[in-house]
Amino acid sequence: MESGHQVVATARNIIQLQDLKKTYGDQVITIALDVTNEVAAYNAVQSAIDHFGHLDILVNNAGYGNINSIEETSLTDFRAEIETNLFGTIILTKAALPFMRKRRSGHIIQVSSIGGRIGPIGRGPYAAAKWGVEGFSEVLDKEVGPLGIKVTIIEPGGFRTDFAGSSSSIHDSILDYDATVGATARFQRDYNGKQPGDPKKAAQAILKIAEMSSPPLRLLLGSDAYNGALRNDQLKTQSDKEWGDLSKSTDY
Hints:
Elements: E1 7-11, H1 18-24, E2 28-32, H2 38-52, E3 57-60, H3 75-103, E4 106-111, H4 124-144, E5 149-156, H5 178-191, H6 199-210, E6 218-221, H7 223-242, H8 244-248
Parallel strand pairs: 1-2, 3-4, 4-5, 5-6
């Protein structure tokens, strides 16, 4: 908004957006939104178009990730995380697509995670959802690119936001998982507030991407995400080559 953009800001609890509205006035409208509600998502998109006359950029940023072992995470909690992190992204994207398709323009920015490239211990539901976001967005890019709509997947590492604070639940696992999930939980409690990523600089990077005529499909944010993704991708490539003969042996 400091760059002059008009913004529709959403949150489950609209009270969280009061300061934003006070600071930027008519430049921003605030809407209460549960991203898992299809009707509410469509209405939010329609409100943006009715108020500003168009919708240029959609940023799917809603999400959270608890820490617990897969075994100890209830199916209810699994579904809740996947509903918000994956289906929320799908629902908002589908709500915006008809308007962008008719205009033959638009940019959909999906905030994934380094956890959408690397399976982080203790975050099974979150990783399942974010890997889903990555695959969904790759397909989306191939389908809507010829229609003039751009797609970018943002993959942040650790940033000093509330993501690892009150927005997340950290569970102590049973002893058998102490060396894996337990270690992750202990690390996260100590790490919160010490992450290397600066949220303001992340916002500036996303704004830069939003203004590009040919943005990347993927953008890692943070040196931790960048270095981790490169190491992970190298290991995958090495493994694929190591087992290449067995992989190719299944052809007729």
